[in-house]
């Protein structure tokens, strides 16, 4: 007798009484080609919704994202937990394309890209290109655009499916971290259980961005703070040169502005090196803008990317240093 296909529990956490993107997410889930799913919506406040297969739990007060996702996992009836952000919506074959990977018992998780939706405002598009470009995200560009399949050690929960049994074995999300609870979960799955997480470009969702400038900087600054903290306490995930890049930019600019006037050996040597690196960085921003122009066919967005990415790197770098050097414990 053939076993029925697994049920997928789609878990969404929501923070607002009125979220303009939530209906877009739920509508897209209803159009999934894979029909064995349930939807679990965990909210701070009750939201009046009428969707098939939807269960909702609300607390009446603020609860952190990691705790919400853990509650959703406990409510789940499915063998697979599919986490998606409330400001994202899946492509029609999202579930269908992730399910074959779970036939391999060594696969604990499946992630896919979160692409900026078409037709968004120019402010949101600018925020998107700050991530979805080579200088914006470096080796993690595949998180924002479609790239080849690969095994990954860390993946964000905006589009991450996990086998429920494995999720329970590692104790779910660590509520002491946000953002970053997904990094800790992936570390537990790959190191404690010795299993794998795979990225598949066909496991596609569309993910709205924080518009420029201040919402965008606030989010990226939080990422920098937590990544810096992780670089100290979880070196397996975050003690990598790529994460220190923006902080080195900050320190280099500080030196050029405030110390280069000393012009004493060996500082004059660092002065020359610093200016060469700084010029190289700006040339890379220009090359990155040309790349964006070629991909987006939008000259305005390509030119805007130069100051936006520069400012983002400075703020991320400052917050990374704060997390790495000065943060003893993250606020929940």
TrEMBL record:
Check the record and name the PANTHER family matching this protein. GLYCOSYLTRANSFERASE, SLR2126 PROTEIN
The entry's protein name is Glycosyltransferase 2-like domain-containing protein
Q: Does the keyword Transmembrane apply?
A: yes
The UniProt transmembrane annotation reads 241-262, 274-293, 299-318
Q: Which UniProt keywords apply?
A: Membrane, Transmembrane, Transmembrane helix
Residue span, Glycosyltransferase 2-like domain: 9-121
Natural source organism:
Candidatus Collierbacteria bacterium GW2011_GWB2_45_17
- InterPro entries the UniProt entry points to: Glyco_trans_2-like, Glycosyltransf_2, Nucleotide-diphossugar_trans
